[in-house]
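Newbie here. four chains, one complex. Structure please?
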Amino acid sequence: MSFRISSEPLDPTALARTLADARAGACVTFEGWVRNRNEGQPVLSLEYEAYALLADKEGARILTEAREKFDLLGAVCVHRVGHLQLGELAVWVGVTAEHRGAAFDACRYLIDETKARVPIWKKEHYASGVTAWINCATRGDFADAGR
Amino acid sequence: MSFRISSEPLDPTALARTLADARAGACVTFEGWVRNRNEGQPVLSLEYEAYALLADKEGARILTEAREKFDLLGAVCVHRVGHLQLGELAVWVGVTAEHRGAAFDACRYLIDETKARVPIWKKEHYASGVTAWINCATRGDFADAGR
Amino acid sequence: MITLHIQYFAILREQRGLTQETLVTSAATPTALYEELRARHGFTLPADRVRAAVNDDFVPGTHSLRDGDRLVFIPPVAGG
Amino acid sequence: MITLHIQYFAILREQRGLTQETLVTSAATPTALYEELRARHGFTLPADRVRAAVNDDFVPGTHSLRDGDRLVFIPPVAGG
């Protein structure tokens, strides 16, 4: 079980290899990719920034919770930070279990809780030249854009 | 969108590459691995056999259903046939979508329906030397073992 | 009497000892034919656990067989 | 008066123009300090959308600050 923040590009093949387990019948992975639009606006790139010390602690708590809730064998969650281009991998979650139900449920739990609770922030760069910290608008959409 | 049966080993890295899509924010994959036990019995290897013509048709129907039910961008499902050793990849499902909810739900749907409906059979080889076609026992567990 | 081409998979292939055969039968439906073959070859699966496909499409057990049909009996699939 | 070490991330870092600072304050809680800083630096996020961490653990906004604490204000995370 491990959670970490990475400033280097993620390698899904290498990450998946760390989950190999002869007892496992199921491996479910989630990859979050930088996509070319968000809520109708063309996106050029993304910046991710983390409060690494607390992110590591909160990530470890989420893994512990997942292990208590689901019948897991292994779990890995890695989140990129830095400036990412379209199509780049922003977050990778992989879970192994004897049976696929637990693997799906745990993978979903890990990414949902990570996105909701771990102190990692996302700034979108739009084709218009404007930027915005996501979820930080306070006076309508993108009110903080470009500040 | 594609479904196929493969008698060659599956390459998850190459399969995932076929799903690249600038519109996609989420990619969920399921891998089914040959595990070393089933219902308490040590397993040495597995044989998968398919009725390929009907499997392809039923797989294509399942993909069409998934596309109608979920907001998908891409989906691939490949099932191995032949004699597989412990740890080998038996089935790979990958789904892309703008958002992760649809990707998780569709991936789960594809593997659940594939396992329930596609004419692919599994024979387990146990450490005891016995073999059994899974789900074909008719007089208690493993009644057909070794025939 | 009609002529049918039958293909066997998995446990039925092993119990029959053949991957395919062509036979002449008076059976009018897949279920009737399966019962006939089961009695002759000792298939362990009861008819209600076996599905049928004709010409590579699933059909109900009560489907009317026609001369020259290609028939496959489908044991329970791998599942879980 | 207590001395606090503050670290800024994301939108707060940009609006403050600093990644960290050490200051002396009479604020007794994270919420009180955030309001003080918000008035001074024009932070756009209201206090109820910002969480606090002291010495790298989440704390409530009413937590009692102590001399030498390391404090981080946490804007809404990336989510979705």
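Moderator note: Chain C is about 25% helix and 30% strand. Helices of chain C lie at 10-16, 30-41. Thread marked as resolved.
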